[in-house]
Amino acid sequence: MPQQPRTRPIQTAAVGYQSLPQSLREDETLFAALAERLGDESGTAVEGCSFRLVEVLLSELKRYIVDDLTQYLDDNDLEAGETNLDRTWTIIKALQQGKAVAPVVITLNDSGEVELLDGYHRVTAHHHAGRTATLAYELILPESD
Length: 145
Fold this sequence. Notes:
The chain is of the alpha+beta class. The chain has helices at 22-25, 28-38, 84-96, 120-128, and strands at residues 7-9, 15-16, 50-57, 104-108, 114-118, 133-140. It has one domain. It has 4 helices and 6 strands, in the order ββααβαββαβ.
């Protein structure tokens, strides 16, 4: 039986790093995750990354979902005085009100599994808002020789 695709393309044309939403381009945590994934200590390769907008099922991201919202989530990128619970509830409310939320950023590992590079709060919020999928920018890795 053929394996089901892990993601569903929304846009077929790839976009460069500079075409990502400003909130993602300014995210230092995302930049560091991309540099690490690319093995690029200087960060110069990040500027040349390509992404495509896809829809990904939350079932592909279940290992990143926090069921108990009082559990710890990485808080390196929180504003002063903001808690993980505050951040996640803000996103849940936005989703419930039909507001746009920035796509998460993913890549496929060598086994074809979806890895979350950025968007832990957003993935958990989508789950708690009753969603079954989320939009994501999928990092398109260069072909290795």
